[in-house]
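Protocol step 4 of 6: structure prediction from sequence.
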Amino acid sequence: MRGIKSGAMAAALVTAVASGQNLLTNGGFEIGPDQACGWICVGVGSTQIPGWTVTLNSVDRQRTAPPSCQPEGWLAYDGEYSIDLNGCSVGGMIEQVVATEVG
């Protein structure tokens, strides 16, 4: 039975990806506090970054655009913002629950 369940879950994920459906909310961290260049520290329990919850210590939300904002060697994957898991001074964790449907 385990193989059937795993196969069904994989098929659901492939179907969502093939249809272009985004399973994450705010996957690029673009929605959140309006900020100028630089970073803000977001503490544990915070939902300041919509779709995400900080679950350990803190994370930094970094604005890296326009080009004048880019710290040396630090670029956003997509858009203007990224997350630094080092947080304010010690490693943090951020998470999101992803809803899926079998079939």
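Step 5 (inspection) to follow. The longest helix spans residues 2-18.
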